[in-house]
Amino acid sequence: MTADLHVLCAGYAHDRVASTVVLIQDEGQAVIVDPGMVSHRGKILDPLADLGVDPAEVDDVVFSHHHPDHTLNAALFERARFHDVWAIYEADVWTDRAADGFQLSASVRLMATPGHTAEDITTLVETANGLVACTHLWWSEEGPIRDPRAEDQAALERSRAKLLELEPALIVPGHGAPFRPTLPTGRASL
């Protein structure tokens, strides 16, 4: 099984900030990753409409972490289940579960990747072109190598190494366009 992945908004973090927002479609399931800050909601809703996806039909929303720039537009997906490092939230039900290894669908799973925050997770997506990692382990392809907001840079470096061992074909960073990691050196291009 393989999923389709669409970047709805390639994020940025300079004098203004927007998260990279992703749609994953797998076996009739729609998953949104990091519906955070954007210049206007059309940056999320218009590409969804172009893909024929109604926000009310989104099944799951994944937060890589709880910073507002990655969560601010979660309310656009009123019928979705919400996922973070600790639990699944649906309506008024809070179901505890560890994120690491949690399978959202046949081709989508979560991986604990602490560093930026202790609660960071990466969404791993098996696509026809290989494994794609939606993660805040990198802000963008350009860097910074050292995360200026990391709670634990050493943990972040360990999480990067752990992720790169999976040999992802593509990394979708927290605030930039997707990029191909430099492998097998063990370091992503920055």
Could you give a short description of this structure?
With 190 residues, the protein is mostly beta strands. The protein has a single domain, classed as 4-Layer Sandwich (Metallo-beta-lactamase, Chain A). The chain has helices at residues 42-50, 153-165; strands at residues 4-9, 12-13, 17-18, 21-26, 29-33, 60-62, 81-83, 87-90, 93-96, 103-105, 108-112, 121-127, 130-134, 170-172.
Description:
This protein has 190 residues and is mainly beta. The protein has one domain (4-172): Metallo-beta-lactamase, Chain A (4-Layer Sandwich). It is 12% helix and 31% strand. It contains two helices and 14 strands. It has helices at 42-50, 153-165, and strands at residues 4-9, 12-13, 17-18, 21-26, 29-33, 60-62, 81-83, 87-90, 93-96, 103-105, 108-112, 121-127, 130-134, 170-172. Mean pLDDT is 95; it is low at 185-190.
Terminal residue distance: 31 Å
Number of helices: 2
Question: Quick one: overall form?
Answer: globular
Number of domains in the coordinates? 1
The strand order across the widest sheet is 1-4-5-6-7-8-9
Assigned CATH superfamily: Ribonuclease Z/Hydroxyacylglutathione hydrolase-like
Helix and strand composition category = mainly beta
Unreliably modeled segments: 185-190
Radius of gyration: 15 Å
CATH topology: Metallo-beta-lactamase, Chain A
CATH architecture: 4-Layer Sandwich
Tell me about the largest β-sheet: 7 strands, mixed
**Can you identify the CATH class?**
Alpha Beta
Strand residue percentage? 25-35%
Q: Give the helix proportion (percent range).
A: 10-25%
